[in-house]
Design goal:
alpha+beta; Immunoglobulin-like; eight-stranded antiparallel β-sheet; two-stranded antiparallel sheet; 2 helices; 10 strands
Length: 205
């Protein structure tokens, strides 16, 4: 009889203890789940901007000399702040001489004198001029000047042109000409820049 008096309260106490523990565990589990949900939702609520595309070369041209000339080089075209910056090097020029270079309408350098490249690239049918100074062709750029060894570092730009978008203003597939003389930025339609020392076709890259 003593044994039965001790055993009856123990199961009851255990049941109460388990019920109490079970209730506490369920509450903690619910809280943990709610915290996890909140943590998962936090990044979604904070939309992170996509990283900007790394700047780089969007197109390039390799210049080869026309018949009887030695001018050659490589120019690169990249969109920077809404315009196309042109950088590169040209060799085989006369020491200290100044030369025009333009984007031309045809990507064709098959003629020995480069005439197959056609006229200036001019999708807007505007007058020739100086880039950044009023009306000008999309293919117009500033003159380049050779140093004492006959090479020139190019730091120019194009306005009114695009790269690789297939629009009428797209320079990919167009020609580039280095001229024998300098551009006076006035004479129509070529700036009186003279013959063609080198020719190349712009390629996306």
């Amino acid at each position: 009889m003593k044994t039965s008096r001790f055993l009856l309260p123990i199961p009851a106490a255990l049941a109460l203890a388990l019920a109490a523990c079970g209730g506490g565990t369920a509450t903690d589990g619910d809280n943990a789940a709610m915290e996890a949900d909140r943590a998962a939702d936090a990044p979604a609520a904070e939309a992170m901007p996509a990283p900007a595309a790394a700047p780089g070369v969007a197109a390039a041209v390799t210049l080869q000399p026309t018949e009887g000339n030695q001018t050659a080089g490589m120019l690169r075209f990249a969109v920077v702040d809404g315009r196309i910056e042109v950088t590169g090097d040209v060799t085989g020029l006369g020491p200290g001489t100044t030369h025009a270079f333009h984007v031309h309408e045809n990507g064709d350098c098959s003629a020995p004198d480069g005439s197959s490249a056609g006229g200036h690239f001019n999708p807007g049918s505007t007058d020739h001029g100086r880039v950044g100074h009023g009306e000008h062709h999309a293919g117009d750029s500033d003159n380049i000047t050779a140093n004492a060894d006959g090479s020139a570092q190019v730091q120019g730009w194009l306005e009114g042109a695009t790269i690789g978008d297939g629009a009428a203003t797209d320079i990919v597939g167009k020609g580039v000409i280095i001229h024998a003389g300098e551009d006076d930025y006035t004479t129509q339609p070529t700036g009186d820049a003279g013959g063609r020392l080198a020719c190349g076709v712009i390629e996306a890259g």
